[in-house]
Design goal:
By secondary structure, this protein is an alpha/beta fold. It is about 35% helix and about 15% strand. The chain has helices at about 30, 40-45, 50-55, 100-125, 170-180, 200-210, 235-255; strands spanning about 5-10, 15-20, 60-65, 130-140, 155-160, 185, 185-190, 190-195, 215-220.
């Protein structure tokens, strides 16, 4: 069976990467006949517009396939949501998901990780180090569209840095400083580390293999730039977040990376 998983990689002459691994909304026609969720249900837990936000002049990885078909930011055994507890209580698949489809999805998962390893290794060989902007979003209105956002518990930007080696602390600090020196549509930006998320499996995998040579910054934007229940975007905020990352990238590029 041919691959069921779609993603694109654009290579640039840069040690930086921008990931949007949950931007995807596509379900392959073979898998679609076995999936129970409609597009609206899937969109709720996907990370729409992260491909736009992470459109930076660096190496880029954008996944087109929905995480509800294959989630490459989970461990392999959790990458296909076979049980409701893996998918926010949702039943994703009919009981008749064929073993051939399931095995192809797992093979796609393994192939994806092999490719990522190869590209990160190439970046290290060419530049001596790598820095990944791993861009995600998260929901803060779990009960209803009218629910007030608890801003104390849900920072505007959650920066997942838990799994980076201490030697990359200056990069993390410069990232946070750069964000705090900016504003979003005229307002200060609340960025905090490891409050909601610490970094997913892809970040952990990369850092386990290559952590001496680079860091992964898992950037979780609270879904203030859209209606998280309907998917309606607020384009000025999306553009502002992209500009924010462009500015941070420029600040980091001015930081001397020692020991590479």
């Amino acid at each position: 069976m041919a691959s069921l998983f779609q993603y694109s990689i654009q290579v640039a002459d840069s040690p930086y990467w921008a990931f949007a691994v949950h931007d995807g909304h596509q379900v392959d026609s073979i898998a679609e006949q076995f999936i129970l969720l409609d597009e609206t249900q899937r969109l709720r837990e996907e990370d729409p517009y992260t491909a736009s936000i992470s459109e930076l002049p660096v190496n880029r990885l954008v996944v087109g396939t929905s995480r509800f078909q294959l989630d490459v930011n989970r461990k392999e055994e959790d990458a296909v949501y076979l049980r409701p507890e893996q998918a926010w209580g949702l039943t994703v698949w009919k009981d008749t998901l064929p073993s051939t489809v399931l095995e192809q999805l797992y093979e796609d998962y393994r192939d994806f990780y092999r490719q990522i390893d190869r590209y990160i290794q190439q970046t290290i060989e060419q530049h001596g180090f790598f820095i990944v902007f791993d861009v995600h979003t998260y929901n803060a209105q779990r009960i209803s569209e009218e629910e007030p956002v608890d801003k104390h518990a849900n920072p505007q930007i959650n920066l997942g840095t838990q799994y980076n080696q201490e030697r990359w602390r200056p990069v993390v600090d410069r990232f946070v400083e750069s964000v705090r020196n900016q504003q979003l549509l005229g307002d200060p930006i609340d960025i905090r580390e490891n409050v909601k998320f610490k970094g997913g499996n892809l970040a952990q995998h990369i850092l386990h293999k290559f952590g001496a040579h680079g860091c992964v910054l898992s950037i979780e934007f609270r879904k203030d730039f859209m209606n998280e229940w309907t998917g309606q975007p607020y384009q000025p905020a999306i553009l502002a977040y992209k500009q924010l990352l462009l500015h941070v990238l420029k600040d980091l590029q001015n930081l001397t990376i020692y020991g590479v």
